[in-house]
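One-letter codes give the sequence; backbone shape is given numerically. An example follows:

. . .
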Amino acid sequence: MKTDWNPLLRSEFDKAYWSELQAFVQAERKGHEVYPPHDEVFAALHLTPFSDVKVLMLGQDPYHGPYQAHGLCFSVRRGVRIPPSLANIFKELHADLGIVPPNHGNLEAWARQGVLLLNTSLTVRAGAAGSHQHKGWEVFTDEVIKLVNTKPERVVFVLWGASARKKKAFVDTSRHVVVEAPHPSPLSAHRGFLGSRPFSKINAALVEAGREPIDWSLPADATLTLGSDPQP
């Protein structure tokens, strides 16, 4: 992990849970397809250095379908069909800020602006949601959340869904801001995610603290045709 996260998280690599977790993931990769690929497991930390974090957006598992997961929560590679939860995120983005959804689901542009797109579990077996939960990843990602909470400047923590909202306990709300709502999944988006205006709330909280807001627009992929259905 060649980023400024490395010295902050290095002590985790010496703990018993870490060696057990890595052995589990290696064994899974030998017997099953595991997402994301090995070199993209820590993509969120590589694209968003600790020093740059302004927003922490928390997901759960990586996507467990072919070609989808690439290390950023809710994001998929260009050319991959936009998953239903991300489609609802784009729907709310348009309703909130009038931003027309792009023709792809790659959120790297957000990550490069200081939006840490973190999943609580960083790997998953193909086709088996939740298969790598409670193996140690949550211990590691909880430490990431706690580290972000130590930043003196304001950070906005975006917690969608019951699982993510439990992490509010790690956030000092006297210094930071929590934006929370039901999960954008089609099963729950209508219960309060749609209409929650999270993007304008995030930017308002950043501006209030004297920080640059996020440009939530995403550049279109010139290799895709607008109106097409991206897929592998």
